[in-house]
Design goal:
Elements: E1 8-13, H1 18-33, E2 37-42, H2 72-75, H3 80-94, H4 100-109, E3 113-117, H5 118-123, E4 137-139, H6 141-148, E5 153-157
Parallel strand pairs: 1-2, 1-5, 2-3, 3-4
InterPro entries: DsrE2-like, DsrEFH-like
Protein name: DsrE/DsrF/DrsH-like family protein
Organism: Lutibacter aestuarii
C-alpha cells in the first residue's frame, strides 16, 4: 500500500463572502507554505473576490449562516451585515490578516495560480480588464479539470 502525498490543492470559490474568501486564501497560502501547488478557480459569485471594483467591499453573510448564531430574521435587519462585517474585519486586523487586494498579491507572488471561470465571466458580462491584473487567465471547467488531472491533486469546493 503506497501513500501519496498531496501535491496540488485546487480550490473552487463560488461565493465571495468574507468568510469564504479568507478560507480559500488562507488554505491556498498554507499549501504554498508547505510546498504544495495551489490554484483557485473563481466561479459564479466567487468572481467578486477578483473584480477590481468589488474585492475590497466584500461582506459577511448574516442571513442563513448558522455560524452567526442569530435568527435569520435578525440577520436580515438593516445594518446587521455591515456590523458583522466591520466586527470581523477588526478581528482580522488584530491577527495581521491582509485586506483582500493585498492577500491576492501575496498569493500570486507565492505562486498560487488564479483562474476565472469562463461560463461565469460570460454570464455576468465581465471583461478581463474588470478582473485583477494577477489573474492567470480564464478557464472553462474542462480546462480546470485538465489542470486537476495530476496524481496527488485534491479539489476543495468552498
Amino acid at each position: 500500500m503506497s501513500k501519496t502525498k498531496v501535491k496540488k490543492m485546487m480550490f473552487i470559490l463560488s461565493k465571495a463572502t468574507i468568510e469564504n474568501v479568507y478560507a480559500a486564501f488562507v488554505m491556498a497560502n498554507g499549501a504554498r507554505m508547505e510546498g504544495i501547488e495551489a490554484e483557485i478557480f473563481f466561479t459564479f459569485f466567487g468572481l467578486e473576490a477578483i473584480q477590481k471594483k468589488k474585492l475590497n467591499h466584500l461582506h459577511v453573510a448574516t442571513v442563513g449562516n448558522p455560524a452567526m448564531h442569530i435568527p435569520t430574521m435578525l440577520g436580515g435587519l438593516p445594518g446587521m451585515e455591515a456590523l458583522a462585517t466591520k466586527m470581523m474585519k477588526k478581528e482580522m486586523e488584530k491577527l495581521d490578516m491582509p485586506p483582500v487586494d493585498e492577500f491576492l498579491e501575496i498569493l500570486s507572488a507565492s505562486g498560487v495560480k488564479m483562474w476565472g471561470c469562463k461560463l461565469a465571466v460570460d454570464m455576468f458580462h465581465l471583461k478581463e480588464e474588470d478582473l485583477i491584473d494577477d489573474l492567470d487567465g480564464i478557464l472553462t471547467i474542462g480546462d480546470f479539470y485538465s489542470k486537476a488531472d495530476v496524481e496527488g491533486t485534491q479539489i476543495l469546493f468552498i
